[in-house]
Amino acid sequence: MFGMMFEGEYANISIEDNILFLEYSPRLVLTYHVAKEVLSNRLAFQQNKAYPVFCNTSGIISAETNALDYLSHEGTLLIMAIAFYVNAPLNNLLTEFFLETHSRKIPAGIFKYRNQALKFLRPYTQ
Question: Which parts of the sequence belong to the DUF7793 domain (predicted)?
Answer without folding.
Answer: 14-124
